[in-house]
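Q: How would the structure tokens look for this protein?
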Amino acid sequence: MKKFKKLSAMVALTAAMLTFTQVPAFAAEAPVAQPQKQIIVHGTGIVNVTPDMATLRFGVETLEKTAKAAQDKNAAVTDKVISQLIQAGIAKDKITTNYYSVNPQYRYNDETGERVLTGYQAYNSFSAITSDVNNTGKYIDIAIKAGANNNDGVSFSLSNPNKYYTQALKLALENASSNASAIASALGTTVGAPVQITEQSSYFSYTEEANYLNTNAMTKQSVSADIAGGADIRYDKIKVTANLDAVFTY
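A: Here is the predicted structure in token form.
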């Protein structure tokens, strides 16, 4: 019986020693996870698009002795201008009022230092939007001849900018992938698809060369004579830009 107990104790001790000596062996064989190396790049995509929308801005200013007279005259002239623009092809629902005001006008008496009421000014500013971008000069000519005595400028835009922004985004991703591949090649390795993409700023810009006659503070007679040939409007393409950052691993 004593021999059996002694033998059992020796077996237990041997098993414990084996367990103790084998634990470090298993720990040494466990693979150590290596962090993935990253390449972070920026990508830019640009699409140049011919504008398909133009916004023309006009103003009608009238001066009369009374506020009502200034308003009535302004309404008559504005109605004529808008009517002529509609007849020329601009849709009625594309003409909107931007600003309207009626203000008293004064002059100062140098001798007494008092201001004297001289009348009232009515001002109506409105915009007309057209897809006929190649005839913006014609519309300016028509509006001024009809009585608009302020030309507040013309700007060009896109009716569906998101369509071209999507194209620019694709180009931006291609640009980022190309940049990452170039860096990886220099390191003697390769990259796959990006593991993270962050969309950055986007913007639309264009160069507008608008050589039209500025009709502010000009009489109807002088305007008609000076722009007999129509306003000369030129425009450039709109630059649609997309930017993103992308992360690649190797």
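The first strand starts at residue 38 and ends at 49.

The helical segments are 2-29, 67-88, 136-146, 161-186, 220-226.

Upvote if useful.
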